[in-house]
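Technical annex B. To support the medicinal chemistry partners, we prepared a structural model of the target in complex with NAP, based solely on the information shown next.
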Amino acid sequence: MKQLENKTAIITGASRGIGKGIAETFAEQGCNIAFSYASSVDKANALEKELSSKYGVKVKGFQSNAADFESSQKFVDDVIAEFDGFDILINNAGITRDNLLMRMNEQQWDEVMEVNLKSVFNLTKASVRNFLKQKGGSIINMSSVVGVMGNAGQSNYAASKAGIIGFSKSIAKELGSRNVRCNVITPGFIETEMTAELGEDALKKWTDGIPLKRGGKPEDVANACVFLGSDQSAYISGQVLSVCGGMLM
Ligand code: NAP
């Protein structure tokens, strides 16, 4: 049985990487998908076509900057008009602007906070009315093991990802009585373009420290999202689930 049949999900940042993996797995599980991206128009169009023809679900990509409050509101309004509401919101869009604090400039700090953390506020706030109308929903926010452990050279990124955890637990408390759940995933080292920038040495250092001795794949994160988005997790809210091969325990 398909686990997300008759459901609709919004996924931010699904033109590449983990978000794309989530879109593929959700489509396979019968979910209709509205996804956003920043600039990869061709990749987004290709994904839209591929998933709808392969799985027979409705898939639409929207070029929308998740860091912008008004664009996010418009994105959600457009999705409601097109899909007649949605059941799952996955705040996945994220960037890195790594530097040691000594060298980090204000722009690197601000961009990461806006794309990674403010976006979660923007999309969640824009979605509340929809979830109240639907009498329930599941919000899944993409943090990182770095938000729990910290990482030298990523103070901006770690702060944004730690902020997501505090935000999500607060939303779980605010909206629990309305049957809206909010959980966090903290991926470890997942093989995408974001991590491909690291050299061979850094890659080996990371995988050596992982009990399962390999980097994760977007599908590993996507499978956890299927669980948290489906009714299988109906009594789970305010939790942080680490998909990291045991790196964080
Ligand atoms: P990625 O391969 O760099 O993909 C990022 C996605 O986000 C792209 O679809 C990109 O769209 C979109 N995006 C970027 N800025 C955006 C904005 N302002 N508005 C809307 N969409 C935007 O990243 P990833 O590795 O898949 O990471 C996905 C999430 O997982 C991020 O939140 C990241 O922090 C988190 N994470 C990743 C890892 C890892 O090891 N990869 C580990 C822990 C956590 P365009 O294609 O148009 O640029």
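Notes passed to the chemistry partners:
The first strand starts at residue 8 and ends at 11.
Residues 12-19, 36-40, 65-67, 92-95, 115, 142, 144, 187, 189-190, 192-195 surround NAP (CB under 6 Å).
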